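Submission sheet (multi-component)
Chains listed below:
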Amino acid sequence: MSHHGEGGYKLEVRDLSLEMEGGTILDSVNLGIQEGEAFCILGGSGAGKSMLLRTLVRLHEPTTGEVFLDGSTICDLDPSDLRRRVSLVQQSPAMLEGTVEENLMFGLRLADVPEEEARTRVREAMTRASLDPSFLDRRAEKLSGGERQRVAIARAYAIRPQVLLLDEPTAALDPRTTREVERAILGLKEAANLTMVIVTHDIEQARRLGDRTILLRRGRVVAEGDSASLLEDLDPEERARYLGELDKRHEDEREGDACE
Ligand SMILES: Nc1ncnc2c1ncn2[C@@H]1O[C@H](COP(=O)(O)OP(=O)(O)OP(=O)(O)O)[C@@H](O)[C@H]1O
Ligand SMILES: [Mg+2]
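Outcome: structure written.
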């Protein structure tokens, strides 16, 4: 049986639940993401953010519920076709051994993009991700954290996905490098019709990058709204609790940075 999405969303999640051996990972999640929107998923560690993104590209099959792309259920799509249209940059993106250019070209060859077209796309993707073309000859394994993250974003963008999913693109980075990666993400927002879903645990980042944001807690959406006023509707006690959970993780990372 095949259902159809409603409301003209680019990406729609309806009543999605994911159960695994350990228990409930995602619990009745509903999302409607418009074409061209930058949509943030905010939540503390273990909230289910990565599992949600992974379910959107069928790395996990939901226990109940459905995901729609352009109104059609993704169950009807071939997974490799789906992943060309919806591209996931994982939390710690892996690089192939070789140059940055080889890393970008690899995915394009897999997608049967002709050589000349692929080279054009590689250059365009580098510009979009605010990377100088001289990076193309660098060894991917020798990049810094922020460079690597931007190369991973460029690599996903070069495939020309309709939807780009970014899982904590700045999680392990210092504040200055975080800004560089954010600039690259904001650069992508100018690309016509690109829809982005960005996972973060930093409410300030959600405000900088997101048009709309949801707060995920223990697999449930507990708040949803425009990124600036997301938590305003919660009662003060609840709001303080959620902010505390997000902050804790933030502080852990700051301590980590100080030790470097
Ligand atoms: N393969 C798996 N099998 C069973 N449970 C899993 C699996 N992967 C993750 N989980 C559990 O699912 C829950 C959500 O994990 P997830 O990785 O989505 O969290 P997260 O919000 O991305 O956290 P973080 O901010 O630390 O990356 C956690 O309780 C985790 O232990
Ligand atoms: Mg995660």
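Remark: The longest strand covers residues 23-33.
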